[in-house]
Amino acid sequence: MSVKAVPILKTKRLLLRGLIDADKKYLLLMRSDPQGNRYIERALAKDMSDIDAHLEKINLGAALGENTYWILQKKENPELMGNICFWNFSPDRTVAELGYQMRTEFQRHGYMDEALKAVLQYGFEILHLKEIEAFTQFENMASIELLLKNGFELQEDRRDQGFPKNRIYIISHKKYFSPQ
């Protein structure tokens, strides 16, 4: 299913890898869950055709170098727990947007924090990004806490056009390599 090889990242408990066919049923569970999508402004997935369209978009973006999309799984279990990605790169490829989502049953166990640390390292050390942006709703306290814990800072002067509930957080290369 994957168009472009996604680098495998490993953490203490997780394996971050590219998409495989077996992920489709779990993507449908995740993208159709009203609770897990309450802070994401998009239509819930209704059936596998919605997932196929989503995967086609991801794979096309990967083929064009427009995204890097990882699936989160426990090292000992290949079941999809969530995803994390870089996308929406700046024209000079020094800035990327971070996206992430976790299936509800895997939230609040520190998995996304673990994955984010690995992805930030990859973004700054391998992709040589200067900044990483994350857009999250002001009501999504778990997401805000995750971003702040990992060195992101709120950009109070910026707004996400068309998404008034979103707030923009950024971490720079400089901040990442010299925290505090």
Short recap of the structure:
Helix content is 31%, strand content 27%. By secondary structure, it is α+β, with helices and mostly antiparallel strands. The N and C termini lie far apart (42 Å).
The succession of helices and strands, N to C, reads EEHHEEEHEHEEH
CATH architecture: 3-Layer(aba) Sandwich
**Number of DSSP E strands:** 8
- Counting helices, strands and paired strands, the structural category is alpha+beta
- How many domains? The number is 1
Rg, Cα atoms, Å: 16 Å
**Biggest sheet, strands in spatial order?**
1-2-3-4-5-6-8-7
How big a fraction of the residues is strand?
Answer: 25-35%
Report the major sheet. 8 strands, mixed
CATH topology: Aminopeptidase
User: Which spans have pLDDT < 50 for at least 5 consecutive residues?
Assistant: none
DSSP helical segment count: 5
Give the distance, in angstroms, between the N- and C-terminal Cα atoms: 42 Å
Q: Share of helix among residues?
A: 25-40%
Please identify which CATH superfamily we are dealing with: Gcn5-related N-acetyltransferase (GNAT)
Description:
This protein is α+β, with helices and mostly antiparallel strands. The protein has a single domain (9-177), classed as Gcn5-related N-acetyltransferase (GNAT) (Aminopeptidase). Helix content is 31%, strand content 27%. The chain has 5 helices and 8 strands, in the order E-E-H-H-E-E-E-H-E-H-E-E-H. The chain has helices at 24-32, 48-63, 111-126, 141-149, 173-177; strands spanning 9-10, 14-17, 67-74, 77-87, 95-102, 131-137, 153-154, 166-172. It has an 8-stranded mixed beta sheet, with helices on both faces. Strand 1 and strand 2 (14-17) form a beta hairpin. Helix 1 (24-32) crosses helix 2 (48-63). The termini are far apart. The mean pLDDT is 92.
